[in-house]
Amino acid sequence: MYICFRLPLMRKSILFFLLFIFPVFAFAGVVKGVVRDTSGQPLPFVVVGVKNSTYGVNTNLTGAYFMELKAGNYTLVFSQLGFVSQEKNIVISDDHASEVNVVMNSDVRVLNEAQITAKGDRDKGKEIMKEVIAHRDDYWNRVQNYKCDTYQKSSLEKILREKPDSAIVPIAPPKVDTTKKGKKKNKGEDLQAEINDDHLNLIESVSTTFFKAPNQFKENIIAYHDYAGKKKYEGGNGGASVGVEYGEHEIAPVTYEADNPYLLVSDAQSADFNFYKNEIDAPSLCSRPLKSPAATGAFLSYRFEYVSSFEENGKTIHRINVIPLFNEDALFYGTIFIEDSTWAIVSVNLNINSGALLYCKDFSVIEDYSEVDSSVYLPVRREFNYTIREGKYNIIGNTRVDHTNYVVNGTIPPKTFNDEVKHYADDAFDKDSTYWSENRPLHLEDKEISYVHKVDSLTEYYTSPAYYAHIDSSFNHINVWSFLLNGVGHRNRATGTEFFFDPLIADVVPFGVGGYRQKLGGYFNKDFDNGYKLETEEQIDYGFLNKDVRGKVGVGLTYMPLHFVRTFVRVGDYYDMVNNYASLESVFARSNYVRCREISVAQRAELVNGLYAELTLEYSDKFPITGMKLESWSQYLFDTLNTPSDFQEYIKSEVRLELKYRFKQKYIIKNHKKIIIGTKYPEIRFFYRKGIPGLFNSEIDFDYIEIGSQDELKLGRFGTSDWNILYGSFLNKKDLRLLEYKYFRGSDSFIFSDPMRSFQLLGPRLSTSNSFFRLNYIHHFEGVFGTKIPFFNKLKITAAVGGGVLMIPDQKFTHEEFFLGLERIVRIKKQLFRIGVFAVTADSNVTKAAITYKVGISYYNTFTRKWSY
């Protein structure tokens, strides 16, 4: 099936293109070009500034720069340490873009001169920065709140490292190839393929930004356009997955906004590089907060060199070079501009030490300030440039943020600063090309204009039945790999239905209970127009050794989606784990399994913001698996843990109530969905279990409660601490069976498990029918010491320390452990991992103290900006 684009649509496309092109040259001019050295290689990070002005930009990795200027005569200064500075006179007019390419000569004398004049420059630069630091709090305290209009543009461009010049070659106009191996292809698919080859991601937004001291932001998004979001469609059909229900139960829905972790500046919080603060927290960039050049104690981390002074708008401006004393620490280097007498920061052009960066090989921030109110200086232009290496590619990132129409210390509308930190207007995603051309306050580069034109020319195609059929066909396509590796599925976006069957690789269970088992699993989902969602999960398996069929099915309906209200029913006859959070060495041991016939109903809801509740009624019939034929290899693999638990069959009716409260939980409302961010306060959890005697012939009678809390504490540049405290007790145990005991996660031989929910040297399995108290703690120093040790700091190794306590008073059992580790952060494409080697020692009234070495891996969540531990 294909679409024939008729003439009226072509006219619309041309009109949209002209609407983009015309405003680019209607109000201001542009100067652009490439800076190279004498060998023809592009020079990145060259400062391109207007002479006797604080205004400037930097060249990117390909040596390219792009600068907007009003009509007039200018002198551009191209400067970089180790090269002879150059000046170029240009004339900017409103009707065309100027191109100035520069070749810079290296000059060792620049380095020598810097050494000769360093002391005098440092003295004057230091005296000026002393004044800045003395006035820092005064400027910071003058702003209690503000409101402004914000425009933000973020882009990512992927280029081959072997061909950096390709990034600056203008993208050619769309060329339609209507044939491929003799087969016709519709224009939408052809342009789609061409867009995919552009390797560009572009996002624009228009918003109203509110700020309240000391650090609260609220963004009302008026318009939002993710151009890459249009061209992304889901390919493949599922993919193989093998998993079990493992870990502690979680009732709070895990929600996130699917984003690209390479978009390092995406909102008001991440763009807030406030140099009047002592520290700038940027967890997506550095593991520890950045120290401002204007911070108290800045002279312990920086030295400052006076460069020059000039007159701008009738005021004297001092230019100061910022030089970090420790190249691997989270510090800046570059230039800062200070207004004489007022000692206000009027502009910065600073880079972050590359040794401190997580994702990037370089990151620069440019900020221009304006006196928006009497003696109140706030940023009006922010520009962030960075480079990320990914295999044979370099990814060039750029974010531009413009602030206008500041209202400082005014009356903020009531309920502005609530728990919702970002709100998208209902029509924020419906703005057309005309809106963006009229409300975009800056120029798009040539390649961006061409890219936007291509994407917008497909607007009608993206909403056509042919496009949805194209998306579905990719998911629905079946071949031999579908059965073997990917799975077989069918999706119909028109009806909102989807079903999927697991592939063969996921259905083969060679180490199942009772030997080899053949499984068939899948799901059926349906999305409704009102936001409701129907979910099902099915699994059936057959054991060849015991000739037994087991399985379970679950059906859930989510309604009132903003409050996560869901009812879920599960029915099954299957092999269940006794301890769902056992050690990896014993989780599949036969002693950890029983047969379970179950029917349960669970009701989940968010009662108020941050308060989650789940009420479950479960009826089950528990059987031991002592009579089953067990495979011979399992005895060798699990040894003593291979003996199944022997008990008398019993019937259980149980009610469970779990509450979790995140005080002042932050969230985003987008597309009528609630996206949870988290809270900076401790999270509180309450859990209650009741075994109900007599209900449906239930034979058990017990009451159990758990109360716990956990939190993450950022201690500035001294690192991050995590703690988790939990108390549990059986209030009634008139008829308490072994399977209903409280089980703790056992320890693995060489694996360092999550220290917030487990112990490293507790033994393979432990349970109790009494009260207990558990405390876990870990602190990551995040380079507090190592960044200042020469040579060692190149290894980027940091330290962690922590421990835990488990007490069961009725059993007179106490377990205490302590660990010390060395960690290093590594990046595999878009995912950060923190790998650690830990020395662990423990002492209890059962075992003697010993030292064991373990290896652990935690991962970084780019949306919540938190590590798993």
Task: Pick out its properties.
single chain, 869 residues, mainly beta, 19-stranded antiparallel β-sheet, 13-stranded mixed β-sheet, 12 helices, 46 strands, 46% strand
Summarize the structure in words.
It is a single chain. Helix content is 14%, strand content 46%. With 869 residues, the chain is mainly beta. It has a 19-stranded antiparallel β-sheet that branches. A 13-stranded mixed β-sheet has the order 16-17-18-19-20-21-22-9-12-13-23-34-35. A hairpin with a 5-residue loop joins strand 37 (701-714) and strand 38. Helix 1 packs antiparallel against helix 7. The model is unreliable at 1-27, 110-117, 164-184 and 231-243 (pLDDT under 50).
Put the structure in a nutshell.
With 869 residues, this protein is mainly β. It is 14% helix and 46% strand. It has a 19-stranded antiparallel beta sheet that branches. Strands 16-17-18-19-20-21-22-9-12-13-23-34-35 form a 13-stranded mixed beta sheet.
Layout of SSEs?
Layout: H1 7-24, E1 29-37, E2 47-50, E3 56-58, E4 64-69, E5 72-79, E6 86-92, E7 97-99, E8 102-104, H2 109-116, H3 118-141, E9 145-160, E10 179-180, E11 183-184, H4 187-198, E12 200-212, E13 216-226, H5 227-231, E14 279-280, E15 290-291, E16 302-312, E17 315-324, E18 332-339, E19 345-352, E20 362-373, E21 376-390, E22 393-408, E23 420-424, H6 433-439, H7 446-456, H8 459-462, H9 465-476, H10 480-486, E24 488-492, E25 497-501, H11 504-507, E26 508-509, E27 517-527, E28 533-543, E29 548-559, E30 565-577, E31 593-608, E32 611-623, H12 632-638, E33 650-662, E34 666-670, E35 673-678, E36 683-691, E37 701-714, E38 720-735, E39 742-744, E40 766-768, E41 772-780, E42 797-808, E43 813-828, E44 831-844, E45 850-861, E46 866-867
